[in-house]
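# step 3/5: fold
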Amino acid sequence: MMDSVTTTPRKSRLARTFAKVRHIQAVINVQKTKLPHDKKKTTKKIPPVVAKKNENEAAVIEEAFLAKVFATVSSIKAAYAEMQFAQLPYDADGIHSADQTVVSELGNLSELKQSYFKKQFDEIMSLTPDKSMLLSEIQEQKSLLKTYEITAKKLDSQLKLKDSEITFLEEKLADAVCDNKSLEKRILKSNSPSEPENSLRHGHFVAYFHQAIKSIRRFVRLLVSEMQFSGWDLEAAVESIEPGVSFWKPNHICFAFESFVCRVMFDGFNNPNFSDGIELRKSRRLFSDGFTELKSVESFAEFRRAKYLKLMHPKMEESLFGNLDMRNSLVGTGGPIEFPKRAFFTAFGDMAKCVWVLHCHASSFDSEVSVFRVGKGSRFSEVYMESLSDEAFLSSEIDYPRVAFTAVPGFSVGGTLVQCQVYLC
């Protein structure tokens, strides 16, 4: 009996201990199987409506960001177009301003690039996306409008230049037709034995003189036109050429430029070495043969080169054409050179040729041909002078007109005078 009593408690404690161990193991297994499920329960689920709203806001911000990028690129294009337009005619302030704008906008574009890589759109978008997008579109449209305005200015300048070239060519054609008719008449008269030889040659000299003056005035008109397009102060330029002169009409300032061009082109006309050592022919027949080969005469090329370098100051050439290519090519060569096919250089070449022909013809005379000018303040004389400003005779404030300056020099050919052309005041 005692054995049965003593063994029962030992069995019951062992059973309880075993049951307790199994229970703990079961609890651990249950926790292991439920752990992933519990983790999933701790993750917050975003409602579909909220997620879609966040995606829409991100898309709007990206669209506003792209609009800002395109607006910045348009600003760079407009500033670059402005810089190109300021090159010719040369505008230092315009180039500097456009350059600063390009640098500033490139900096803005670099900031946008860094923000895109870092996904920091909020730092760039200081306003709401809608307002930022609207402002970017406004900026882009302004830049496009500015580009169109610059393009319109370029086309307008080109149109004015073409109109000037057309006018020049029309005048040149009309003069050529008129001169051909005049030469035909002179050729017919030259076949007549009744006209003295010297009279015929003097008549030819006067005809060449008028042709030279026409070519000089065509060149002066183109020169003044180019200076106006380049933004020159024409009044200041005239004051440096003929100081203290009051002109009757605004367009009379061309006579001052004409005076300057004539001084350069006829400088050294009386000198037998005007053409740098060419052996001057003493017969009209040999002169005619030389005239037909005019373009191949090296001395004429040297004459044309020297007159261009003296007439066109480096600052003026750079202002009109944006570079010194023509001057550098003339200085660097000793032989003939072809001028660019532009109305300005064509007019200069025609002027140089006409002055050269006049000089060669003057050198064919037995008697000396001399150039004369009238000094400032001289009284007007119809024998020696031709007036370019008849308004001086009609003014009640002037008792007798005085010479302000000589625009075109006169010539003395033997016993014959070719009047100089003067501006009166």
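# step 4/5: annotate
Residues 388 and 423 are 5 Å apart (CA to CA).
# step 5/5: archive (pending)
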